[in-house]
Amino acid sequence: EFLSPLYHVDTAADAAQALQALIDHPPDLILLDVRIPGTDGMTLLKSLRNRGVTIPIIIITGYETPQGAEEAAQYGVSGYLAKPFDLRQLERLIADTIHRRGPRTA
Question: Does the pLDDT at position 106 exceed 60?
Fold first, then answer.
């Protein structure tokens, strides 16, 4: 809800829906929670990267660990936010990530 006025936001209820959405309408950025139905976010992150998906990914977690942050960094995440976080912090991270990536090419 917070991001909808600024960006087109799609959501997925579980990992299977997320994968299908990526195929149907590849996004400019993925916000990925560590705890999601169907698998965990880190497994989905690894799967996406192993499939060659280069879309920027920001990990959101309520279960922050140094190991989790290191593992996410190994898979090239654009950010790692621990809950609770300030929504403005999320907004800045998204804007910075999209700006660094530049325009998407077809």
Answer: no
